[in-house]
Design goal:
- The structure holds 2 protein chains of 2 kinds.
- By secondary structure, chain A is an alpha+beta fold.
- Chain A has helices at about 35-40, 125-130, 175-185, 275-295, 300-315, 315-330, 330-345; strands at about 1-5, 10, 25-30, 55, 60-65, 65-70, 80, 80-90, 105-110, 115, 135-145, 155-160, 165-170, 195, 210-215, 220-230, 240-245, 245, 250, 255-260, 270-275.
- Chain A is built from 7 helices and 21 strands.
- In chain A, the strands form 6 sheets. In chain A, strands 4-3-14-8-9-11-5 form a 7-stranded mixed sheet, with no helix packed on it. In chain A, strands 6-16-15-12-13 form a 5-stranded mixed sheet, with no helix packed on it. In chain A, strands 17-21-20 form a 3-stranded mixed sheet, with no helix packed on it.
- Chain A is elongated.
- Chain B has 3 helices and 14 strands.
- Chain B starts with 18 loop residues before the first strand and ends with a strand.
- The chains are: A alpha+beta, B mainly beta.
- The interface of A and B includes residues 53, 54, 55 and 124 of A.
């Protein structure tokens, strides 16, 4: 439960958390953790540079704690990234490292997603990778600098569905917080509310629809985000097939979806409506209502209908077998010669 | 020299301060890169729009002075059409993209000379005051053909460069459609169409004026940094 400042006490899921301060310029660092650079070294055309790799983000990328981020169906590699966010509290122009901490108001946690399928080598990392709507999660709260004795000694980690996927320590930052403030303020005036995302460590992994991603920094906070599908954003058609329930001869959608993935190609084969209690109860009620009519039919009529079902399967073996192979990875000979004909046999 | 809240009149022309700029949105410039676009580090020509964020410290107005950093002789004067968004724009279809535009103005996307297109190069492009906008916003209804406007840069009153807004890899509508596929633009946000190749240089002590047909003239003086 959460107590709001006006006194209302509400369940966690009854509130929408925004980023915990009014965010100005969002300054992000790439390749700023020693181990992440090592992890990416195979695909990098340059090694760690003398000059920090800085890029900016716009405000549309931001969402808060317990927000949901869209995981596009048509990409293969979207990854999270846990990082320490440094919030500027006082205008900083040409500040030296020695006095840089005077300009830090505090800290929060950031989970900065990237869609690597869209990576292009022009002004990299390009915005289509790093500046997507809702792709930068910030929160859960703001921790004043006075409560963080040493921001370069913070363990951080990411858990995807409870499994540890990423861990690091802010001690491994290649450019420290004072060095970053000195560098940035040498050419751009930093203002209160500007935030520096200091870079993510080793261990970024692909995340999928339905995953719960938790980014933790000791002494700062635990930031939760959930990946949701294109369907929630009215984006249909990116995926070749959409399967809904059929209850009482009517198509029925669900609150949640899952994806069926072709194991050979990792492509999303279909988005499938995931049934819950509501759909099960509706299906049971529809079946109960239909039972007396079905039971009242003469046996010969019932046999005809069941046989018709078998005949329809037989007439469409090749198509059904191909779909089954894409769904399960079984060889086409097995699905086409054994599995699907066997299904038809059940009714004939 | 920075203005946290630039206001050019009343809504819908009140700017949010959020600025995105297209880079390399100039077909002749990409063509001139030729085979180099296929070589490392870039390896292949860009597919999606190439974009930069212009953070709030870069914002400046018509008439503001821009500082040429110590140790640098000159800055590139990057004339760009500015599209002011009037309505929340998310996944805007190409055919109706111009309907989200409130109006147009002019930007000077100043930059120190770039050696490469590989990294964001924010130290060269995102310095204080490096993106003046103005002088005022012309309502979209008065600009029926934003992709066919004459653009000129004058340095100390002498025309140094001329072009048109029509040579982009993406037109105004195309850019809005492609950008809003993955990022939503809000009323008052601005999208810069981008700079054509061959931007002229301006030195400290000079004055740069950018004129875009029907939109007026944006003038900024250049001064040397006091070390």
């Amino acid at each position: 439960m959460i107590r709001l400042t006006d006194g209302r006490v509400l369940p966690e899921d009854a509130v929408v958390r925004l980023p915990p301060f009014e965010v100005g310029t969002i300054i992000a660092l790439g390749l700023n953790c020693a181990d992440h650079v090592k992890e990416l070294s195979k695909e990098l055309t340059v090694t760690t540079q003398d000059e920090p790799l800085v890029f900016f983000k716009g405000p549309g990328a931001l969402i808060g704690h317990r927000g949901c981020t869209r995981r596009p169906a048509d990409v293969k590699f979207m990854h999270d990234g846990c990082e320490l966010a440094v919030v500027i509290g006082k205008t900083a122009a040409r500040v030296k490292a020695a006095t840089a901490f005077e300009h830090v108001a505090g800290y929060t946690v950031c989970n900065d997603y990237a869609v690597r399928d869209h990576l292009e080598n022009w002004y990299r990392p390009n915005l289509r990778v790093k500046n997507r709507d809702g792709g930068t999660v910030l929160g859960l709260w703001f921790v004043p600098a006075a409560d963080v004795p040493d921001p370069h000694k913070l363990a951080l980690r990411t858990l995807v569905n409870g499994q540890l996927t990423q861990q690091g320590n802010t001690a491994d930052l290649i450019n420290t917080i004072p060095a970053l403030i000195e560098y940035l303020s040498s050419f751009m005036t930093l203002q209160a509310g500007d935030v520096i995302l200091t870079g993510t460590p080793d261990g970024v992994v692909n995340v999928n629809v339905g995953d719960e991603v938790v980014c933790e920094i000791d002494g700062i906070g635990r930031l939760v985000n959930t990946l949701i599908s294109d369907t929630h954003f009215g984006r249909r058609g990116a995926c070749p097939m959409r399967i809904h329930h059929l209850i009482n001869s009517k198509p029925v959608e669900s609150r949640d979806d899952f994806e069926s993935v072709n194991p050979a190609t990792q492509d999303v084969l279909a988005e499938v409506a995931a049934g819950g209690a509501v759909e099960i109860n509706a299906a049971v009620a529809a079946a109960k209502a239909a039972l007396s009519k079905w039971a009242g039919l003469p046996a010969t009529d019932r046999v005809c209908l069941l046989r018709k079902l078998g005949e329809l399967i037989t007439a469409n073996v090749s198509q059904i077998a191909r779909t089954e192979t894409q769904d399960t990875g079984q060889v086409i000979g097995q699905t086409g010669k054994q599995l699907v004909p066997r299904a038809a046999d059940n009714f004939t | 020299m920075t203005h946290a809240a630039l206001t050019f009149g009343l809504s819908p022309f009140r700017l949010s301060g959020v600025e995105y700029a297209a880079l390399l949105n100039h077909a002749p410039q990409l063509a001139a890169l030729g085979d180099a676009a296929h070589q490392p580090p870039c390896k292949a020509p860009p597919q999606a729009p190439v974009l930069a964020v212009k953070p709030r410290n870069t914002l400046a107005r018509d008439g503001d002075m821009v500082v040429v950093p110590a140790g640098h002789a000159a800055l590139a004067m990057g004339a760009s059409l500015v599209v002011v968004i009037g309505r929340t724009a998310c996944r805007v279809p190409l055919a109706s993209a111009l309907a989200v535009v409130a109006g147009y103005t002019i930007a000077n996307m100043l930059s120190l000379p770039l050696a490469s297109h590989y990294r964001p190069a924010v130290r060269l492009m995102a310095r204080d005051g490096f993106c003046p906008l103005g002088p005022s916003i012309t309502p979209a209804a008065q600009v029926p053909a934003p992709d066919a406007l004459a653009v000129a840069v004058q340095i100390d009153g002498v025309t140094a460069w001329q072009d048109s807004t029509g040579q982009g890899v993406r037109s105004v509508a195309h850019l809005i459609a492609d950008v809003t596929e993955f990022m939503t633009l809000q009323p008052g946000d601005v999208l810069l169409l981008g700079v054509a190749a061959g931007a002229p240089l301006g030195r400290a002590g000079q004055q740069a004026s950018i004129t875009i047909e029907d939109l007026g003239c944006l003038t900024n003086g250049l001064i040397a940094e006091i070390a």
